[in-house]
Amino acid sequence: MGRLPAAMAPIAVLLAARADHASTALGAVLAALYALAGAIGQPLLGRVVDRSTLAAVAVPAAAVSGAAFIALAFVDWAAQPLAAAVLSVVAGAATPPLEAGLRAMWSRLVEPRHHHKVFALDSASQEVVFVAGPLLATAVCLLASPDLALVACAVAGSAGTLAVAARPPASVRSPARAVHWLGPLRSTGLLVLLTASVFFGVTLGSFTVLALSYADRHHEGWLAGVLPAALSFGSLVGGAAWAKLKRPWSSSRALPAVGTVYASGFAVLLLPAPPWLMITASVLPGLFLAPWLASAFAACDALAPSGTATEAAAWLIAVIGLGQAAGTAAAGQFSAYGHTATAAVPLLGAALAAAALVAGRRRLSLP
Question: I need a surface site. Which of 126, 155, 210, 337 has the fewest CB within 10 A?
Answer without folding.
Answer: 337
